Amino acid sequence: MKKKRKNAIPAAIVIILGSMAFWLIINNKKGTIKETLRDFAVQDTASITKIFLADKSFKNITLERKPSGVWMVNDKYIARKDVLQTLLSTIKKIDVKEPVGKAAQDNIIKRLSGSAVRCEIYAGDKLIKAYYVGTETSDQKGTYMILIDPETMKPSAKAFVTYIPGFEGYLTPRYLTKEKGWRDQTIFNYEPDQIQSIRLEAPHTPEFGYELTVKGNNDYELKLLKKQTVVTNLDTIAVKQYLTYFRNLSFETFEDQLSEVQQDSLRLSKPLNSMTVKDNKGKSTAVKFYTRYAKRHSDDDVNAEKSKYDTDRMDAIIDDGKEVFVVQYYVFGKAMPSADYFQKRK
To answer: Model-level pTM?
Structure first.
């Protein structure tokens, strides 16, 4: 019995030492580097109230969560939910893959100083995290980053390769500093019971214009604009279905092909359709839709033949604003039916 006990002691030591060796192997990638030098993540993203992004070309973005819970871009526009959620998810999940090797440290830090995006993360008025976001690694599976001390705002002397576990790619595009990339793209977003009226004008074919008014529960009026006559045989089921089409109607992108001269020509031209939606609070949003040309090479192309028309998209101007947007027929076409859509079929 004593012999067995003597053999058990060395066995226990082997098990303990083996466990320690395993732990060291698993944690080897952290080595002796201080955790404060590699801690890029913010786990509690619900506490974040503001994110500031700035690049070396003096473009900057301020994303701020208002008391209502709505995130704003530069205090002017509602932020795109999908892009914002991607950034918040990145801030939470970002991890260090490996430190940059000693031989490459100086070179990578120089690259960061010349092209990086500075990211500052706030909870209330307190800066809780800051770092520089650099370019991608050669295999495009990691991103060079370096932490900034929130107290002194001095960057760390050590750069790291960061990544998100399970994601194949680099993270730089998620920290974009172009305002347009952050803006919400919604044009109309109404529940049926929020709509008071919808007016559709067709300048090229005025006889197709109409205005649909919601007068009460299951009480609708459809007036033909040219004749100023009221349609009597309304299909209320068709009307209810139509009102559901105004949930989350968004533009696809900004129209960047047009010069200022072309934009002026577009505004002076006759739109294909003009749609005005008024909600039950009396607020109206008006959108004019124009023929879009598939390719534009000069200012004269605004008079191009029909063969150059984009058959999938239109240009749009909201509330006679200065910006031109691109919208899809697939998205907005269902919101522009002819008046007989609302009439009962015999």
So the answer is: 0.79
